[in-house]
């Protein structure tokens, strides 16, 4: 992952251009290999939150580390160093710290937490001490549940539930699901939300039922078939 500076320009027709300034010259041979061109290719981007990492992020990180330690018998200190090293590899050498006075940002800490929570979902590590600190009221937790097809209520294997009703008789493989709000629910809780309604469901389990939107790559990975031709047409001119 390479950090770079970007500028946004609005055109007269209401569209927008993004100009990305790279700190170093990209590997042009690699671009030709993966994209077939050095002038047009697809990119993923996110807007970095450069504010200083929050104390709440530190508390959540160490609570989750203790959950993994209790599950695996590995020491919290060893796990901390392990995930710091994984972050360094993921960011191509960038260091991170959650100590007081850190220069790491909110986005840096979120990337670290993403690695930890992804590990816990992947290896079915139970959330105990860190459960109450999980940001279930935000899209991050809902995203991970969808990504790993785990029910947001009980953690069992889940189907992808559409908040936006598609309609009877409509072929779901012809729908662009990136434009739909989704959530992961097992069969039992899927039936329950249909029976009692989203408002009562949200009050009962203290969970949001607004759902989230997923990108094309994630939808394809979890097996949600659809027509994504329009959403994949994101081209950056260099």
UniProtKB/TrEMBL annotation:
Any single Pfam family the record assigns to this protein: HNHc_6
Source organism (scientific name): Paucilactobacillus nenjiangensis
Protein name, per record: DUF968 domain-containing protein
Stored CDD domains: HNHc
Top-level division of the source organism's lineage: Bacteria
InterPro entries listed in its UniProt record: HNH_nuc (IPR003615), HNHc_6 (IPR041242)
């Amino acid at each position: 992952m390479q950090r770079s500076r970007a500028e946004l320009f609005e055109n007269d027709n209401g569209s927008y251009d993004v100009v990305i300034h790279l700190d170093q010259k990209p590997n042009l041979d690699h671009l030709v290999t993966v994209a077939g061109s050095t002038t047009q290719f697809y990119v993923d981007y996110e807007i970095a939150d450069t504010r200083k990492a929050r104390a709440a992020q530190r508390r959540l990180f160490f609570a989750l580390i203790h959950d993994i330690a209790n599950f695996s018998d590995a020491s919290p200190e060893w796990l901390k160093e392990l995930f710091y090293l994984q972050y360094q590899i993921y960011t191509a050498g960038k260091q991170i710290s959650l100590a007081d006075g850190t220069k790491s940002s909110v986005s840096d800490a979120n990337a670290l937490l993403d690695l930890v929570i992804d590990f816990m979902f992947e290896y079915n590590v139970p959330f105990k001490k860190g459960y109450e600190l999980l940001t279930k009221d935000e899209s991050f937790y809902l995203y991970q549940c969808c990504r790993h097809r785990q029910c947001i209520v009980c953690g069992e294997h889940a189907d992808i539930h559409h908040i936006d009703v598609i309609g009877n008789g409509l072929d779901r493989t012809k729908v662009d699901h990136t434009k739909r709000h989704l959530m992961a629910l097992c069969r039992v809780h899927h039936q329950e939300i249909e029976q009692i309604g989203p408002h009562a469901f949200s009050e009962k389990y203290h969970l949001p039922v607004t759902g989230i939107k997923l990108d094309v790559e994630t939808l394809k990975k979890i097996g949600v078939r659809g027509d994504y031709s329009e959403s994949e047409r994101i081209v950056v001119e260099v």
